[in-house]
Design a protein that fits this description.
two-stranded antiparallel sheet; elongated; mainly alpha
């Protein structure tokens, strides 16, 4: 398996992990929420895992075999650090569908059934526009992310 494929596979393993988190609600006090790890967090966890593998093979690096393993994990770390995660893992159409479905789920109990999809579409577009605006402000070398979100927006508009 190529090192880039190993890097992507590690991220996919982490991104599917359920997580629990606490938050403070003004009415109920402390609450516990649940969800799944974001791609950025999954990438960070994958990097921690890979750094552990590098350390393990550094301690055992008395043989060529161990040195080759260490080199492999260093290459995977390099791939992870340089991976444009949002552009590589989910296609814009998949991301658009996922975002749209989340919006529908969140508003379907608060709106008349006849307008749920229209409202979900509008909210998704607002969210995507905010992402594009924020990414455009942050840095010019993240054009891949801006381009990605523009494609996601075009897919949502097609719903």
């Amino acid at each position: 398996m190529k090192h880039i494929e190993v890097a992507k596979e590690l991220i996919e393993k982490f991104v599917n992990q359920p997580i629990n988190f606490t938050y403070i609600d003004s009415e109920d006090g402390q609450c516990i929420g649940a969800g799944f790890m974001t791609y950025k967090s999954a990438k960070d966890c994958a990097l921690i895992y890979v750094e552990g593998m590098i350390k393990e093979h550094t301690w055992k690096s008395s043989t060529r075999f161990e040195n080759a393993k260490k080199a492999k994990w260093e290459s995977i770390k390099f791939m992870l650090l340089n991976l444009k995660i949002m552009c590589e893992i989910k296609q814009p159409k998949e991301k658009a569908k996922s975002l749209f479905q989340k919006m529908v789920y969140e508003i379907e109990y608060n709106c008349q059934p006849s307008i749920v999809k229209m409202v979900a579409k509008k909210i998704a577009i607002i969210t995507i526009d905010e992402m594009i605006e924020e990414l455009s402000r942050e840095s010019a070398d993240d054009s891949c992310s801006v381009e990605y979100w523009q494609e996601v927006k075009n897919e949502v508009l097609s719903f």
